[in-house]
Structure formats: C-alpha cells, structure tokens
Amino acid sequence: MPxxxxxxxWNAARLDLLAxxxxxxxxxxxxxARRRTLxxxxxxxxxxxxxTHGPLNLRDLFGxxxxxxxxxxxxxxxxxxxxxxxxxxxxxFNGTTAHLxxxxxxxxxxxTASLDQIEAYKARMGWDFDWVSCAGSRFxxxxxxxxxxxxxxxxxxxxxxxxxxxxxISVFVCEGASVYHTYSTYSxxxxxxxxxxxxxxxxxxxxxxAELPWPMAWVRRHDSYGxxx
Length: 229
Hints:
Layout: H1 7-35, E1 41-42, E2 48-51, E3 54-57, E4 67-72, H2 84-90, H3 93-101, E5 105-111, H4 115-125, E6 131-133, H5 139-142, E7 153-154, E8 157-158, E9 168-175, E10 178-186, H6 195-200
Parallel strand pairs: 4-5, 5-6
Antiparallel strand pairs: 1-10, 2-3, 4-9, 7-8, 9-10
C-alpha cells in the first residue's frame, strides 16, 4: 500500500519532486542544445525509395522542407505485418506530421518491406503518414537498423542476438542539393518519442513491466487488444 498522508503533507512531497523535475528538464534542455551542435556528415550514396508517387531519392523525401526525420520502422519483406512495438509509436504519427511541417521538418517512415505490404498495413491501422520502402537499397543497413544476419553494430556497439530488423530514428538536413546526416538514435533513445510510455510514467503503476518476460510483452497492435492469445 502507498503512504497515505494529508493534503498538506502531499503538497510538501510534491514540491520536493517538482524541484527535481525542473532540474531534470533544464538538464534535458541543455542536452538537446548539445545535440544540435553535433557535426554533419555528407550523404553521398544515391538511395532510392519506393513510394505511392513513384521512385524517390533521399532529397525527394524532404519535399519543400530543409529538415527530415526518418523513423526506421521494423517491417521485413518476409513479415506478415509491421512490428507491434513500432506500431505503438506510429499510432501518434498522424497528428504529429502537420506540426513538424510547420517547423520546416518532413517526417517519413522507412521499412525494407515492399510498398504493397506497407500500404496494406497502413490501411489496416488507419494511418496516413508518409511511409516508403527501401527494398533493394542499403539505406536501412547503412543507418544501422537492418542486418543480413548475426553480427554488426546496433546503437553504436556490437549487436546482440540475430534480429535482422531493429528500430531507430535518423535526422537529415539539406542545403541546396546536398543532404547531410545529423543524428541517429536507437533502443532506449526512442523512449521519449513514445507518448504512451510518457503518460504511463505519470501513474502509480508506471509501465508495470517488471514481471513480464520482456518489457514490451504486453503490447498489441491497436486493433488486437481483444485477442490476448
């Protein structure tokens, strides 16, 4: 059972926590500022993506924006559906992309699955954000989320296990015809972009995953929570 106190005592405890929360937020703001000072790397490979508008290159994905966020969505070409965990993140994308565009930033998901697979899954999930296929391209390999087998690097260290698809986010900027890679993050680095987890962190139970076989074992696609088999 929790510690049950008076409102006055609760307010005092809340003010103590608030001071820590403010310090954490200031530290996070400073870290974000440091992130923006990372150097850039020119992208010289001629990547091609398949979209509903036909073949596109990386520069095309920016549209008329100067910044691009790529969500590396786990969906292999031999999968029946997109990753359930990635889908938890993706459930918030529809409403986010318009706001990003207002700040000169394009957003697109990229997977190795075929465009037909992607479009069928988008229709099932009711999503309309941009999502392209990099099938036949080394794009997801080069940005550390798709693997030909065991080995390789994930999250800037030797990859564990034999997973061929893993999640990530990469950020690019364009200056004229030139495209530069500015940032990539993986694994727990994606955590802050998951609004469901951020809300759960406010509750007494939190994420409540300690007794599960793995942290996200509870996650289902949003149309599948009635089937808990």
